[in-house]
Amino acid sequence: MLTSGFLYAVLALATYVQAFPAFGSLAGMTREQLDAIVPTLKYAKPQNPPGPLNDTSAKLVNDAAHPWKPLAPGDIRGPCPGLNTLASHGYLPRNGIATPVQIINAVQEGFNMENTIAILVTYAAFLVDGNVITNLLSIGGKTSFTGPNPPAPATVGGLNTHAVFEGDASMTRGDFFFGDNHDFNETLFDQFVDFSNRFGAGKYNLTVAAKLRAQRIQQSIATNPTFSFVSPRYFTAYAESTFPINFFVDGRRNDGQLDMTTARGFFQNSRMPDGFFRANGSKGADGIDQVAAGAFIAPGGNVGKVNSYTVDPTSADFNHFCQLYTDFVQKTIFGLYPSPSGVLLDALNTNLNFLFLGVQSSGCTQVFPYANLTSTAPTKY
Ligand code: HEM
Ligand SMILES: *[C@@H]1O[C@H](CO)[C@@H](O)[C@H](O)[C@H]1NC(C)=O
Ligand SMILES: *[C@@H]1O[C@H](CO)[C@@H](O)[C@H](O)[C@H]1NC(C)=O
Ligand SMILES: *[C@@H]1O[C@H](CO)[C@@H](O)[C@H](O)[C@H]1NC(C)=O
Ligand SMILES: *[C@@H]1O[C@H](CO)[C@@H](O)[C@H](O)[C@H]1NC(C)=O
Ligand SMILES: *[C@@H]1O[C@H](CO)[C@@H](O)[C@H](O)[C@H]1NC(C)=O
């Protein structure tokens, strides 16, 4: 019988499908939602990730072909000052919607990020926050999507999505618990400056990075009852503390000391200084050992109230790097996509193969959450 409740659900689903953006993530959707949405999307077969740059020398990257421009209406920016800046200089599409290959090319060309870390970070973020059918990722959230509820999922994806990649205790962005996990926060940046003054004579360097990382962890423990600091956030938090040093310091200086005017330009305005040269040689999380040593805490989190930090022995840590990868695939990805088929399965398996390229050289063994299906001619999803 066609009850009004049923009719409402059908209409709500139809509105939802109509409003669903091509870059919205399918992660965590029910079978019903996938059945409604996947057929409306055009499958863009994933392209192979680019290899390393052939020329990794420092060079002018704030050049005539890549001028900074202010945001146009609808342009999306998010929690990552690196990607925000690449979009505002046209290394990425200025609207903030990009493919994984565009992101890898941009971080390599614009900042000299090392190839395997670029691959690892990009495919990890893309698999949980991007749309694997259309091959698009939002570097922030959404602009105009307002889905009905139910059956809308809590989010349409993008890098603002909390807990699968974005996480707590960021240097210049607040914790999700406090309501805004992606915009530049002046109070937090003031603390960044204060720590740079106290421990770096006015510059952000690795000594400051370790002090500030420890401070942000302690602040989250003391104020955020939902504070979570387990893999993958555990790793990205320490790694990201080194990025301003490795990527925001002009490649001709290369002295690991970041001045505050340049820092504000990147963190707040997504802007490179005039005449900016990228790093001299490709870099990743160089210096992470020093940050981790100076700000060490075992992975864990608060358990529903402040000051209740409890170690989580099941999380990957620095002694179990490959577990970062295997848990991410077998728990996170598999949990978000428990039974994919057709083009969705094809897209997931292909992107999982690309993700593995980011850890292969670290000696990790590939894991396959969906049996060992490489590619069967996809007809359904
Ligand atoms: C390779 C692709 C990349 C992806 C997918 C990515 C993604 C992200 C995400 C999701 C965050 C938020 C994490 C959080 O604080 O909760 C973040 C933070 C950050 N990213 Fe990226 N990122 C990438 C490359 C880069 C590059 C090339 C740079 C530097 C040039 C960079 C610099 C940073 C910094 C400094 C933060 C920390 C911000 C803060 O703590 O306030 N990222 N990134
Ligand atoms: C490096 O050079 C090779 C050979 O010319 C080329 O195929 C490859 O695309 C280049 N790599 C990049 C990242 O441009
Ligand atoms: C910025 O962060 C501070 C400190 O966590 C917080 O009190 C404040 O509400 C945040 N500001 C905004 C605009 O979110
Ligand atoms: C950071 O700057 C301070 C003050 O100049 C200096 O004592 C410290 O050695 C620097 N640390 C690094 C890693 O450059
Ligand atoms: C980059 O580093 C190399 C090797 O240390 C050096 O010869 C070169 O001059 C540096 N390039 C720039 C632009 O500083
Ligand atoms: C998956 O299948 C490919 C192709 O049949 C094979 O080469 C590979 O060894 C298999 N891997 C595992 C882990 O079974």
TrEMBL record:
Keywords: Heme, Iron, Metal-binding, Oxidoreductase, Peroxidase, Signal. Its cofactor is heme b. GO terms for molecular function: metal ion binding; peroxidase activity. The keyword Signal applies. Residues 64-293 form the Heme haloperoxidase family profile domain. SUPFAM superfamilies: Cloroperoxidase (SSF47571). InterPro entries: Chloroperoxidase, Chloroperoxidase-like_sf. Residues 1-19 form the signal peptide. Belongs to the chloroperoxidase family. This is Heme haloperoxidase family profile domain-containing protein. It comes from Agrocybe pediades. The lineage of its organism: Eukaryota, Fungi, Dikarya, Basidiomycota, Agaricomycotina.
